[in-house]
Amino acid sequence: MRPTHEYRDATTQEWDEFEDHFDRRKVELGSCGRPYGTPCQHEHACVRCPMLHVNPKMLPRLAELEADLLDRRDRAHAEGWIGEIEGIDLTLTFLRAKRDEAQRRAQRPAVHLGIPARHRPKDSK
């Protein structure tokens, strides 16, 4: 029950900023679910970011990324780069979880929610 005088139309600048935020949410693998007006605090390390929603169409790209990470892990193991191995393993864990979620989402059918209708109470005319 907000007072009417508190409502106003958005300025052109405010509307442009709002649209710009959602344009910036589009990333290679899908979209970022971060709230409006917040920056990407993960420095665009999207595969590890819990806010990334992978588009199921990008599953082949995830397979490419996984193959590359496995190659990098083999090299790190051969060179004895223990810290690098740990980082790659963490990234692989996130990548596989995101892949599994995208595969589940791809198998779910779309749900038609319809348009809500207003119903009149029985005692009204």
Please summarize what this structure is.
By secondary structure, the chain is mainly alpha-helical. It is built from three helices and three strands, in the order αβββαα.
Question: Could you walk me through the main structural features you see in this protein, from its secondary elements to its overall organization?
Answer:
- This protein is mainly α and 125 residues long.
- It contains three helices and three strands, in the order H-E-E-E-H-H.
- The chain has a three-stranded antiparallel beta sheet with strand order 1-2-3.
- The mean pLDDT is 85.
Q: What is the topological layout?
A:
Layout: H1 12-24, E1 26-27, E2 30-32, E3 52-54, H2 59-79, H3 82-107
Antiparallel strand pairs: 1-2, 2-3
Share of helix, binned: 40-55%
**Number of DSSP strand runs:** 3
Poorly predicted regions: none
**Helix count?**
3
The ordered string of helix (H) and strand (E) elements is HEEEHH
The portion of residues forming beta strands comes to: 5-15%
Order of strands across the main sheet: 1-2-3
Broad shape: elongated
Main β-sheet: number of strands, strand sense, barrel status? 3 strands, antiparallel
Give the class from helix and strand content and strand pairing.
mainly alpha
Ends distance:
27 Å
Average pLDDT for all residues: 85
Q: What's the alpha carbon Rg, rounded to whole Å?
A: 22 Å
Task: For the structure shown, list the relevant keywords.
mainly alpha; 3 helices
